[in-house]
Write a structure and sequence with these properties.
Blueprint (H helix, E strand, L loop, with lengths): L11 H4 L3 H14 L4 H10 L3 H9 L12 H9 L5 E6 L2 H15 L6 E2 L4 H6 L2 H15 L3 E6 L1 H5 L4 H10 L11 E2 L8 H16 L12 E4 L6 H13 L4 E3 L24 H6 L5 E4 L6 H10 L3 E4 L4 H16 L5 H21 L3 E5 L2 H13 L3 E7 L4 H12 L8 E4 L3 H10 L4 E4 L4 H7 L3 E3 L17 H23 L15
Parallel strand pairs: 1-2, 1-3, 3-4, 5-6, 5-7, 7-8, 9-10, 9-12, 10-11, 12-13
Helix pairs in contact: 4-19, 5-11, 8-10, 11-14, 15-17, 15-21, 16-21, 17-18
The structure holds iron/sulfur cluster.
Family: Belongs to the NifD/NifK/NifE/NifN family.
GO molecular function, one term: nitrogenase activity
Catalytic activity: N2 + 8 reduced [2Fe-2S]-[ferredoxin] + 16 ATP + 16 H2O = H2 + 8 oxidized [2Fe-2S]-[ferredoxin] + 2 NH4(+) + 16 ADP + 16 phosphate + 6 H(+)
Length: about 500
């Protein structure tokens, strides 16, 4: 067997090309008795056809690579935005390992979450004992200020009752009676990570704000980010609010947790919205959510239980950012400062510089509903044409809102919204009705490989490129970032397509 020589360590991209590994792969293939290379190539070719597309779109009982994750993943992202809060997942350990590794691969940061480690006996008799022991261990070992509980499929299938279990755990002295243990049922066989986020934010806010309503408001504005994975967006929102001298509470701020400085000392709970500020959010003037479909239940709760006005604003692109700033100004009476007007002017200038390369470009995109609406808003603004829009966690309200947005622009007329479809559907779409550019998360790299459609990585998760999550997609600077990623991918592709000397390089230009 080939060995890595300690004096010449080879990474896997080179190691497995050595003769011994190649022979091993060949022998494995022969042993498995698979189809011939010709047959594989023939079928692969057929999967590019309209005939295959029709069969692919007729499938009902199978999902292949959906662009969504499960509810508890969103719930624990919400939880870590609060001061010293430990996410506690009631269910099996494997699920939690998956959530933690998912976030760590995207953010390149440690992510702490515990589970009640339910196994076969708990699946039969219920997980109450796991909850009682798990809460006590978490409280004593990790010393959090709050433990936020959600569930996996297993706990939901057997019908574990979180409210009763947590009350019983408190009665058994797992944690003090007054210690906050908000919870959210997050069954993964319905909804997606954005539903889980919504459920958990609602659970935490209803727990922390109970009995805190005052006669007068605290003069603040609440911001709810939604399932936000761009740290730069949270920082941009805070910067805008500070520039406008707006008093705000971010519900919740996980920007430090997901991007903490390397000081050489491990901190388990960096940053986070203070629990007392979150408790006082019930007394705010109003709430602005930056995502609609990740905050539906929370906004409904705030409107009905707190009697507080809520608004949705997506500060993406010029128009989206203008609308957000004007809404903030209208709610607070604070003017929009000159500094932001200048930033706006720079963003408009940048869009104008690149517009010729984007006008009429055919785009396919996929992702969460709010991300997709923001991106479509931006694409229409620069004259690009969305063609295929795949949203696995779609719903009728979202499709109605997106259709109205597309109908409002001449560039939106050729778009089809593929609600509930997955990335294997999108593969068929890209083969049969090709586009110039694909926008989505890292899973799109397989579509890029198969269809050769250039991919711009925007969304969650992004595992295979570094640091993109540190940037903003919101605000005027965010518009420049989106523009940069999109136009330069198109220009890279143009270079690749004009690179052959004496053949295509007549257009291999220095100046674009
Ligand atoms: S879908 Fe269910 S079983 Fe799978 S990781 Fe999510 S919670 Fe666990």
């Amino acid at each position: 067997m080939a060995q890595n020589n300690v004096n010449d360590i080879q990474d896997h991209a080179r190691l497995f090309h050595q003769d011994e590994y190649q022979e091993l792969f060949k022998a494995k293939k022969e042993f498995e008795g698979g189809h011939s290379s010709e047959e594989v190539a023939k079928i692969a070719d057929w999967t590019k056809s309209w005939e295959y597309r029709e069969k692919n779109f007729a499938r009902e009982a199978l999902t292949v690579n959906p662009a969504k994750a499960c509810q508890p993943l969103g719930a624990i992202l919400a939880a870590v935005g609060f001061e010293a809060t430990l996410p506690f997942v009631h269910g099996s350990q494997g699920c939690v390992a998956y959530f933690r590794s998912h976030f760590t691969r995207h953010f390149k940061e440690p992510f702490s979450a515990v589970s009640s480690s339910m196994t076969e006996d708990a699946a039969v008799f219920g997980g109450q004992l796991n909850m009682i022991e798990g809460l006590a261990t978490s409280y004593n070992l990790y010393k959090p200020k709050m433990i936020a509980v959600c569930t996996t499929c297993m706990a939901e299938v057997i019908g574990d009752d979180l409210q009763a279990f947590i009350s019983n755990a408190k009665a058994a002295n797992s944690v003090p009676q007054t210690f906050p243990v908000p919870y959210a049922h997050t069954p993964s066989f319905v909804g997606s990570h954005i539903t889980g986020y919504d459920n958990m934010i609602k659970g935490i806010l209803s727990n922390l704000t109970a009995g805190k309503k005052q006669e007068t408001t605290n003069g603040k504005i609440n911001f709810i980010p939604g399932f936000e994975t761009y740290i730069g967006n949270l920082r941009e929102i805070k910067r805008y609010a500070d520039l406008m001298d707006v008093n705000y509470t971010l519900l919740a701020d996980n920007s430090e947790y997901l991007d903490s400085p390397n000081t050489g000392e491990y901190q388990m709970y960096p940053g986070g919205t203070k629990l007392e500020d979150a408790a006082d959010s019930i007394n705010a003037e109003a709430t602005i959510a930056f995502q609609s479909y990740a905050t539906t239940k929370t906004r409904e709760y705030i409107e009905t239980e707190w009697s507080q006005k809520t608004y949705v604003s997506r500060p993406v692109g010029i128009r989206g950012t203008d609308e957000f700033l004007m809404k903030l100004s209208a709610l607070t009476g604070k003017p929009i400062p000159k500094e932001l007007e200048e930033e706006r002017g720079r963003a408009v200038d940048a869009l104008t510089d690149s517009q010729a390369w984007l006008h009429g470009k055919r785009i396919a995109l996929y992702g969460d509903p709010d991300l997709v609406i923001g991106l479509v808003q931006f694409l229409l603004e620069v004259g690009a044409e969305p063609i295929h829009i795949v949203v696995s966690n779609s719903n009728a309200n979202f499709e109605g809102e997106l259709r109205a947005l597309l109908d409002s622009s001449p560039f939106g007329q050729n778009a089809t919204i593929w609600g509930g479809k997955d990335l294997w559907h999108l593969r068929s779409l890209l083969f049969t009705e090709p586009v110039d550019l694909l926008i989505g998360n890292s899973y799109g790299k397989y579509l890029w490989r198969d269809t050769k459609t250039p991919l711009v990585r925007i969304g969650y998760p992004i595992f295979d490129r570094h640091h993109l999550h540190r940037y903003s997609t919101y605000g005027y600077q965010g518009a420049i970032n989106l523009l940069n990623w999109i136009v330069n991918t198109l220009l890279d592709e143009l270079d690749r397509n004009t690179i052959i000397p004496s053949k295509t390089d007549i257009s291999y230009d220095l100046i674009r």
